[in-house]
Write a structure and sequence with these properties.
The chain is α/β, with parallel strands linked by helices. The protein is built from eight helices and six strands, in the order H-E-H-H-E-H-E-H-E-H-H-E-E-H. It binds 3-methylbut-3-enyl trihydrogen diphosphate (2 copies) and magnesium ion.
């Protein structure tokens, strides 16, 4: 199946330690089939399973998925409630297997905007998978990067006000440490599905030197092969970080 690609990845060596994904195209997947948009979101859950397993097989350490943006709250109420139900269903269905597989789930974003049932599900999956050592799975829900940066500024301002920080101590590291993603390195590879050429307010700070991979495949059609193709592409890149090559 995908074992041929996996063997190539292993031969090449450097696997991206942190992969981030903008999971896009669920609505178009459904529209192509003359189905309501939530059918695409439901089908997208299978792609999440595929990519999680692909990351486990390839040895990726951190997988950060953009599942629902702050801007997505402006979608029709019926679509939002379908998405929230799916989130609860995904967690109920997957929590045991995630734990068995050593996946530690974290939810990043403004969780105060989630309804109580969704928030309870999120807290449950974080609690029950907390010991996972093989893969960190970050689900960005009610997340936007500008809001995350504004929150970091607020947290630093509070420390200045209560006297625990000097203004001169506010540097890149201080900001980085206040982001939701503080425990993890920046993504090495960003994948966006459905062919859109934009970041849509995702990890603006963290993606400064991330390698970008855009595929036309709609999210519900994604399999671990697509992840492996992206990793192979990444392995052919030369990352310079502004320097010149030796
Ligand atoms: C991505 O699919 C999932 C979410 C943003 C919640 P979309 O729902 O954006 O699908 P398209 O882009 O309309 O096809
Ligand atoms: C980005 O997709 C958000 C997620 C994948 C959760 P959108 O579909 O919301 O982005 P735009 O509107 O095409 O930029
Ligand atoms: Mg979209």
């Amino acid at each position: 199946m995908a074992a041929d690609l996996l063997a190539l990845i292993r031969m090449n060596g450097s696997v991206p330690a942190h992969v981030a994904v903008i999971m896009d195209g669920n609505g178009r997947w459904a529209q192509e089939r003359h189905l309501p948009r939530p059918f695409g979101h439901r089908e997208g859950m299978k792609a999440v399973r595929e990519v999680v397993e692909g990351c486990l097989e390839a040895g990726v350490e951190v997988l950060t998925l953009f599942a629902f943006s702050e801007e997505n709250w402006q979608r029709p109420a019926s679509e939002i409630s379908a998405l929230m139900r799916l989130l609860e269903e995904y967690i109920a269905k997957e929590v045991h297997e995630l734990r068995e597989q050593g996946v530690a789930v974290h939810v990043l974003g403004e969780r105060s905007r989630l309804a109580p049932a969704a928030r309870a599900a999120v807290e449950r999956v974080e609690r029950e998978t907390a010991g996972g050592l093989r893969l960190v799975l970050n689900l960005c829900i009610s997340y936007s990067s500008r809001a995350e940066l504004a929150r970091a500024a607020r947290l630093l301002a509070e420390e200045v006000l209560d006297g625990t920080r000097q203004v001169d101590d506010i540097d890149e590291e201080a900001i980085r440490a206040k982001l939701y993603t503080a425990p993890w390195r920046d993504p090495d590879l960003l994948i966006r599905t459905s062919g859109e050429l934009r970041l849509s307010n995702f990890l603006l700070w963290q993606l400064a030197y991330t390698e970008l991979y855009i595929t036309p495949v709609l999210w519900p059609d994604v399999t671990r092969r697509d992840l492996f193709q992206a990793i192979l592409d990444y392995q052919g890149r030369e990352r310079r970080f502004g320097k010149v090559t030796a």
